[in-house]
Design a protein that fits this description.
CATH superfamily of the domain at 57-361: PurM-like C-terminal domain
Low-confidence stretches: 210-215, 221-226
Distance between the termini: 60 Å
CATH class of the domain at 57-361: Alpha Beta
CATH architecture of the domain at 57-361: Alpha-Beta Complex
C-alpha cells in the first residue's frame, strides 16, 4: 500500500502495523494520517520542546491542555495560548484568518475561561506587491470581522514585513481568558458511562484533512487547497460561548474540548487518552449539513463553532434544553468506555478500532539531521561591512519611521474593536496592551514579539532576544511576567540547515525564559512554511502575560513633560547586525546580534520594576526597532513635546543612536527625582542625554526635525 497518499511515512506505517498487530483499514489510515501529521503530533519538535520549563508557583496548568493557565491572585487565573493558521490564510486569507481567531477563542473556552483579549502576529511579504496587498486586506478583514462580531477585543499584536513571506504569510492568533480556580475544566476527567455530546454547528466537509494540509509545503497554485480551509460564523461562536458558560455555571460539564484540527477525532481521542479511558463514537448520530458523508469524513471534518462535551447521561435533556435556548445543535454522539479504544461505529458496524493512546500520541519522533553554521552564515556573523553612515540623520530617521516595519499600525488596529467588554486600559499601538480585571485593582499586561532577522543570523541569540524583546516592555511598564506562549514558525525541518536553526532558536528561547523565571505554559509549532519561490526566515513568535497589582504601578510611554531630564539606561550600544537601519542602508542583515546576558537582564528587570513602582519617571520606553533615535521620535510625537539631546559624551554616535537589542531603555525623569533615579540605575549604566523641551527633536550636530514632520512620517 502507498502510505504516502495518507500522509504517512513508510516507517510510520510499519509502526502502526506493529502496534495494531494487523493491517489498518482505509478509515483508520486516514485518521492516523491526520493525527500523525506534523501539525497534530509535533513529531519533529517534541524533543526540542522538552527544553521549555513550565515550572512556577503561579502555574496552574502547563502544556498538554488546550491552553496554559497562570494564577493572578484573588482566586482568579488567566488561560492563554497562541496558534498558527498560516497555510489556510495563504490560501483563503479572510476565512483562514477568521477561523484562526475562532479556533483560539474556543481553546480558551475549553479551559472554562471567559475570553477577554485577542492579539495577532502577522507576517507579510513586500507590501508594494499586489499579491501582498490582497493577502493583507483579506487577513486583516478576517480578524476584524470575526473578532468584532464575537465580542472579544483585539488589544495588540505584531506585524512584520519581509520578502521571505511573499509566498507564505504567517497568521498567529492569540487569546487570553479569565477563569476562577474552581472553574477550570480539564480533558483528563472523563469516566466510563459518561456520554460525549456535540454542541454547536452541524458537521460538513469543510476543513477535512486541514491538519495534514498545514504539514506540507504550499504549492504555487493554491486553489486546489481551498476545500481544506474552514468557514467560520462568529455569531454562532458567540452563542457557543454563552451556552458553554451557562452549562458550566450549572455544573453540567465534566470535560470539554474544542473541535479544531482533526475535529471529532482529536477532541474525542485526547479526552480518552488523557483520562486513561476509551471512547465510542456513533457516526450516524452526528448532525450533518451535507449528504453522503462517510464515517472518516465525519470524524476528520474541521467544521467550525463546535465543542465536544463529556457529561453525565442524566443531564443530557437539561443540556439539550440549554442548547435550544441558544439556538445550537446538540446531539449525544457517543460514550466514554473503559477499554482504552478509540472506536467509530456506523449503524452497528465497527469502522475504526484503534488504541486511543496511539491516535493522538503514538506517532514516533523524527530526529532530522542537523547541520550547523554554513560558511555563508559564518560570513554573515563575522561580516565587517558597515553602512555608509549619513552625515545628516534627518532623512534616515524619516525613512525609518515611514518604513513598513516601523510605521504606526493604526490602519490595522482601527479595523478591530478593542473596547468591547470595556476593560481595555491601554489600547493597541504601544509596546504593551493593558486590561483591567473586573472587580479587582489588578491589571493584565500583554506583549507579542518576533525577530526573524536576528534569528536568521544567529538562531540562539535571536531566540533569546525574541523573548527579551517581549519581556523588557513589561518590566518597564511595571508588570511582573507570569508566563509565556509561543508559536514556532519555520520552513521544512527536512533541510538540515533549517532544522539546525530550529534547534538553536528554541534553545535560545528556552534559555532566556528559564533564566528570567518565566514558565512556558502553552504554544504551537508550524513547520513547512515555504513555497516554491522561497522559505521563510526562522520566525518564532512570543506572547507574554504580565500582572500589575494596582494601576498606580503602571508606567506609560509617550507621556513625558516639559523640563523632564532624559536618561539612557543600559549598555550604550546594542547591535547594528539585524537592525532596521542596516537593512535600509545596506539592503541586508550581517554581523552578530546582541548576545544574551542573563545577569544583566535580571538586573534590568529589578531596576525597571522599581522605577515604575516608585514612580521615578514620567515615561519609559524600551529601545527596539530603530534604536534610541526612533524611541526619541516616538516619545516626541506621542507626548507632543520636543527634546534636545547632546551626543558629545558618546563615541561612535551612529551605533549608539541606531543600534538595537539588549536591556536598554529611554526614561524621562521629572525634576526632583533625578537623584533617586541615578542612585537606582548608576551601577547598571545610566547616561544623562538631554532634556524635554520645545517643538523639535534636536540631536546636536546630527538631527533637527519638527515634531509634525516626525508625526507625518510615522503616522501619515
Amino acid at each position: 500500500m502507498d502510505c504516502k497518499i495518507f500522509g504517512l511515512r513508510k516507517e510510520e506505517y510499519e509502526t502502526i502495523k506493529k502496534q495494531l498487530g494487523r493491517e489498518p483499514n482505509e478509515a483508520e489510515l486516514r485518521i492516523l494520517g491526520v493525527m500523525w501529521s506534523e501539525h497534530c503530533s509535533y513529531k519533529s519538535t517534541r524533543r526540542l520542546l522538552r527544553q521549555f520549563s513550565s515550572e512556577g508557583k503561579q502555574v496552574l496548568q502547563g502544556p498538554g491542555e488546550n491552553a496554559g493557565i497562570v494564577d493572578i491572585g484573588e482566586g482568579l487565573a488567566v488561560a492563554f495560548k497562541v496558534e498558527s493558521h498560516n497555510h489556510p490564510s495563504a490560501v483563503s486569507p479572510y476565512q483562514g484568518a477568521a477561523t484562526g481567531v475562532g479556533g483560539i477563542i474556543r481553546d480558551i473556552l475549553a479551559m472554562g475561561a471567559w475570553p477577554v483579549a485577542c492579539m495577532d502576529g502577522l507576517f507579510f511579504g513586500d507590501p508594494s506587491k499586489e499579491k501582498t496587498a490582497g493577502l493583507m486586506q483579506g487577513v486583516i478583514s478576517g480578524i476584524g470581522g470575526y473578532g468584532n462580531a464575537v465580542g472579544v477585543p483585539t488589544v495588540g499584536g505584531k506585524t512584520v514585513f519581509d520578502g521571505c513571506y511573499d509566498g507564505n504569510p504567517l497568521v498567529n492568533a492569540f487569546c487570553a481568558g479569565l477563569v476562577r480556580h474552581d472553574g477550570i475544566v480539564r480533558s483528563n476527567t472523563a469516566k466510563p458511562g459518561q456520554i460525549t455530546v456535540l454542541l454547536g454547528s452541524r458537521t460538513g466537509r469543510d476543513g477535512i484533512a486541514g491538519a495534514a494540509f498545514a504539514s506540507a509545503r504550499l504549492e504555487e497554485d493554491t486553489k486546489g487547497s481551498r476545500p481544506q480551509v474552514q468557514i467560520g460564523d462568529p455569531f454562532v461562536e458567540k452563542l457557543l460561548i454563552e451556552c458553554c458558560h451557562e452549562l458550566l455555571s450549572k455544573g453540567l460539564i465534566v470535560s470539554m474540548q474544542d473541535m479544531g484540527a482533526a475535529g471529532i477525532t482529536s477532541s474525542a481521542s485526547e479526552i480518552a487518552a488523557k483520562s486513561g479511558r476509551g471512547v465510542l463514537i456513533h457516526a450516524e448520530k452526528v448532525p450533518l449539513r451535507e449528504k453522503g458523508m462517510n464515517a472518516w469524513e465525519i470524524a476528520l471534518s474541521e467544521s467550525q463553532e463546535r465543542m465536544l462535551l463529556v457529561i453525565e447521561p442524566r443531564y443530557f435533556d437539561t443540556v439539550a434544553e440549554c442548547a435550544g435556548k441558544w439556538q445550537l445543535e446538540c446531539a449525544a454522539i457517543g460514550e466514554v468506555t473503559d477499554d482504552g479504544r478509540f472506536r467509530i461505529m456506523e449503524k452497528g458496524k465497527t469502522l475504526v478500532d484503534l488504541p486511543a493512546e496511539i491516535v493522538g500520541g503514538g506517532c514516533p519522533e523524527i530526529h532530522w539531521p542537523s547541520i550547523p553554521l554554513s560558511e555563508s552564515l559564518t560570513k554573515d556573523l563575522t561580516d565587517t561591512v558597515e553602512p555608509e553612515y549619513p552625515d545628516e540623520w534627518g532623512n534616515h530617521v524619516l525613512d525609518l519611521l515611514s518604513s513598513p516595519n516601523l510605521k504606526e499600525r493604526a490602519w490595522i488596529y482601527e479595523q478591530y474593536d478593542h473596547m468591547v467588554q470595556i476593560n481595555t486600559v491601554v489600547p493597541p499601538g504601544g509596546p504593551v496592551s493593558v486590561l483591567r480585571v473586573k472587580g479587582s485593582e489588578r491589571l493584565l499586561a500583554f506583549t507579542m514579539e518576533s525577530d526573524p532577522w536576528s534569528c536568521g543570523l544567529d538562531p540562539f541569540a535571536g531566540g533569546a532576544e525574541t523573548f527579551m524583546k517581549a519581556a523588557r516592555p513589561l518590566y518597564v511598564c511595571g508588570a511582573q511576567v507570569l508566563g509565556m506562549t509561543d508559536c514556532l514558525n519555520y520552513p521544512s525541518p527536512e533541510d538540515p540547515g533549517n532544522f539546525w536553526a530550529l534547534e538553536e532558536s528554541v534553545k535560545g528561547l528556552a534559555t532566556a525564559a528559564s533564566e528570567m523565571d518565566c514558565p512556558v505554559v502553552s504554544g504551537n509549532v508550524s513547520l513547512y512554511n515555504e513555497s516554491p519561490a522561497a522559505k521563510i526566515l526562522p520566525s518564532p513568535l512570543v506572547g507574554l502575560v504580565g500582572l500589575l497589582s494596582r494601576r498606580e504601578e503602571y508606567l506609560s510611554c509617550g507621556s513625558w513633560n516639559e523640563g523632564d531630564k532624559l536618561f539612557l539606561v543600559g549598555p550604550i550600544k546594542g547591535s547594528l547586525a539585524s537592525s532596521l537601519s542596516k537593512r535600509l542602508l545596506c539592503g541586508l542583515s550581517s554581523g552578530r546580534p546582541f548576545v544574551f546576558d542573563a545577569a544583566k537582564e535580571r538586573s534590568f528587570r529589578q531596576k525597571a520594576l522599581e522605577t515604575a513602582h516608585r514612580s521615578l519617571a514620567s515615561s519609559g520606553r524600551v529601545l527596539a526597532g530603530g534604536g534610541l533615535t526612533v524611541a526619541l521620535a516616538k516619545e516626541c510625537v506621542l507626548s507632543k513635546i520636543g527634546a534636545k539631546v547632546d551626543p558629545e559624551c558618546f563615541m561612535e554616535a551612529f551605533e549608539v543612536f541606531f543600534s538595537e537589542g539588549g536591556p536598554r531603555a529611554l526614561y524621562a525623569v521629572p525634576s526632583g527625582k533625578e537623584k533617586e533615579f541615578r542612585e537606582l540605575w548608576d551601577s547598571f549604566g545610566c547616561a544623562f542625554i538631554g532634556s524635554v523641551s520645545g517643538e523639535r527633536l534636536r540631536i546636536d550636530g546630527f538631527l533637527d526635525l519638527d515634531i509634525d514632520d516626525l508625526s507625518v512620517a510615522w503616522k501619515g
